[in-house]
From TrEMBL:
The chain crosses the membrane at residues 32-55, 75-97, 104-129, 231-256. It comes from Sparus aurata (Gilthead sea bream). Its main location: membrane. It is found in: Cell membrane; Membrane. Keywords: Cell membrane, Glycoprotein, Lipoprotein, Membrane, Palmitate, Transmembrane, Transmembrane helix, Ubl conjugation. InterPro entries: Tetraspanin/Peripherin (IPR018499), Tetraspanin_animals (IPR000301), Tetraspanin_EC2_sf (IPR008952). This is Tetraspanin. Interacts with integrins ITGA3:ITGB1, ITGA5:ITGB1, ITGA3:ITGB1 and ITGA6:ITGB4 and with CD9 and CD181. Interacts (via the second extracellular domain) with integrin ITGAV:ITGB3. Interacts with ITGA3; this interaction modulates ITGA3 glycosylation pattern. Interacts with F11R. Interacts with RAC1 and CDC42; these interactions mediate physical association of RAC1 and CDC42 with integrin adhesion receptor complexes. One of its GO terms (biological process) is cell migration. Belongs to the tetraspanin (TM4SF) family.
């Protein structure tokens, strides 16, 4: 009984001072919860920004192997989304601390817009991945055969070598894809040196299983797995931020209603 009375008094207690706004403790608690949410939202924006930069900088070598701009575009979208989330979080903090109802409406609208854009982006990403996967299967072999070690195609050569070494594979579908390579036909090697388990100069003269990688499905399977893992990362980040946004919209609506009801 005592605890019930104590809680009732606590949540309905009003701190009054001449010339100051008076709020119930419920409104004050909402303000701090929304402020805490904005801190988390701001950190989430930083995480999205970091993932976008990491995707663009660390894994950008493979962009030259894709005719589609999906990979680089997704990285730029992540960077832009991170900046928007950070700015939205700052607006939310200002609206919460200064109790500006008009700014709260702007903040709520931004949260809703970002949430809807995330849903649209998720659907488009899934559809685009299916198209990218088919395009990858059709074009990777031709790209490796016609552009590897050719003048002006240094980025492709670097990407192919990194792909074969990092994923421990050789050729698009298997090592025999290199037989029709423009570069191989003008050299004595059977495969590039990057196909070797222990890369050394001219190690590609031998295509014995003890010397080169013979992964089932070749590099195409490995690259597909990599792109799919990137999609999972984007999806996980998006779901996490979407959940935060739903919580933030709920807190914002409650705070706005309480500010409307609280006497000044």
């Amino acid at each position: 009984m005592y605890l019930h009375i104590h809680c009732f008094v606590f949540f309905n207690f009003r701190m009054e001072a001449p010339g100051e706004k008076t709020h119930t403790c419920g409104t004050i608690c909402l303000k701090y919860l929304l402020f805490l949410f904005n801190i988390l939202f701001w950190l989430a924006g930083g995480a999205v920004l970091a993932v976008g930069v990491w995707t663009l900088v660390v894994k950008s070598d493979y962009i030259s192997l894709l005719n589609s701009s999906f990979y680089s575009a997704s990285a730029y979208i992540l960077i832009a989304a991170g900046v928007v989330v950070i700015v939205t979080g700052i607006i939310g903090c200002c609206a919460t601390l200064k109790e500006m109802k008009s700014l709260l409406i702007v903040y709520l609208s931004l949260l809703l817009c970002i949430f809807l854009l995330e849903l649209i982006a998720g659907v488009l990403a899934f559809i685009t991945y299916q198209e990218l996967d088919e395009e990858l299967r059709q074009n990777l072999k031709v790209t490796m055969q016609q552009k590897y070690q050719q003048p002006g195609e240094e980025s492709v050569t670097q990407a192919v070598d990194k792909l074969q070494q990092e994923f421990k594979c050789c050729g698009s579908h298997n090592y025999s894809d290199w037989t029709d390579s423009v570069w191989i036909q003008t050299n004595d090697q059977l495969v590039p040196d990057s196909c070797c388990k222990t890369p050394t100069d001219l190690c590609g003269l031998r295509d014995h299983p003890s010397n080169i990688y013979r992964v089932e499905g070749g590099c195409i399977v490995k690259l597909e797995e990599f792109l799919l893992s990137q999609l999972y990362i984007l999806g996980a980040v998006g779901i996490g931020i979407a959940f935060l946004q739903l919580v933030g919209m709920m807190f914002t609506c409650c705070l706005y209603r309480n500010l409307e009801e609280d006497p000044y």
